[in-house]
Amino acid sequence: MRDHPRQELRPAKVNAKALFVIGTSAWLLGLLTLGVMHLAERTPDGRYAWVCVAGIVLGAVGYWWAHKVHLINDEGMSE
User: Fold this and answer.
1) Do the domain assignments include residue 38?
2) Structural domains in the chain (count)
């Protein structure tokens, strides 16, 4: 084994605003897909819709919380 000192990795800076928006949009798209399936009378288990709603609500709350505790700067980048 080598005796090199290990370097600590710094946290990655990501665009958290875009991450929340993309994730919440994906849950919204899933909910819309389930709605279309319902209209086409190919309804899957109704609990899937609740999972999508929970994803949308948690994404919106996460977006708000990240701004509230200043985890996101004005450009949307995590700090």
Assistant:
1) yes
2) 1
Q: Does 50 fall in a domain? A: yes
In order of 1, 15, 31, 70, the CA distances from 21 in angstroms are 45, 10, 15, 17
pLDDT of 69 over the 90 cut: no
The mean of the pLDDT values for the chain is 84
Cβ atoms of residues 20 and 59 within 8 Å = yes
Answer yes or no: is pLDDT of 3 > 70.
no
Beta bridge partners of 77: 15
Q: Rounded CA gap, 40 and 59, in Å?
A: 28
Q: Quick one: pLDDT at residue 71?
A: 65
For residue 26, is it within any domain?
A: yes
Q: How far is CA 53 from CA 29, 67, 74, in A?
A: 11, 22, 28
**Residue 25: per-residue pLDDT:** 96
